[in-house]
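Ticket #4471: structure export looks truncated?
Reporter: QA, pipeline team
Priority: medium

Steps to reproduce: submit the single chain below to the structure queue and open the exported record.
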Amino acid sequence: MEVGTIILAISLIIIMFGMGLSLVKADFLRILERPKAIIIGLINQIILLPLIAYALIVLFKVDAAIAIGIMILAACPGGPTSNLITHLAKGDIGLSVSLTAVNSLVTVFTIPFIVDFALKHFLDAGQVIELDKLKTILQVFAIVIIPVTIGMWINNLKPNFAKKMQRPVKIASAAVLFAVIIVLVLKQKEDLIPYLKQAGVIALVLNVITMLLGYLSAKMLKLNLSQSITIAIESGIQNGTMALAIALGILMNESFAIAPAVYSLIMFLTGGLVIGLGLRFTQGNS
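Actual output as written to the record:
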């Protein structure tokens, strides 16, 4: 799947470039203005999400390929899709954008260690893949930080152009993501049913638990409704394209990509449910 892998990497670069087009310096400085909300969100995303993913893997006793795929996904930051869902659900869009931006920076360094742990823990001794952490950091840096930086630079120089490009970039990136998922499903059709049974259940449970925990932790720590909705979304909506790029482009294993692909589909369905609930709750409190 070499051509598909290249297309996927280009798609991820475009997605991160598109995210950069919507970012300004204030999105990173917002952590100083509202540290409590940002810290709660980051704890849910960077610490609790991988821990919950690991606990569910142990509980459900899934195949090694599914386990590694779930851990890859849990290591990734929230995707730009979370910003759109937050907007539609009447959440705090400023908090959402800031969390996505900061989380994308932090996970450049955490992804290699979580993925390396998953490979060593879930593969048999003879199958273990040695992950070059420094190389992985540089690869993730190249497909995340550089395009985001270029996007922010263009937004600073040509804000009107950046605003016009945001929508087509999002549509194109979503189209490529679904195309890659379809190709992956077709190539893995022989093993698809058993993989789907395992990946579908654990992906749905992980998605629902992390969103609920994000919302409840925010409410318990006295954040307002829109902030709580935002943290719930940011906790459960992951950058599926990045997870697929890591599985296919860095690890070169299509089996590892099944769980992120399934999760990517599920999160759009649960995201739609959150939008409905968010609209209902915010209208009821207005």
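Status: closed, not a bug. The export was complete when the record was re-opened. Leaving a note from the reviewer for reference: The chain has a mean pLDDT of 83.
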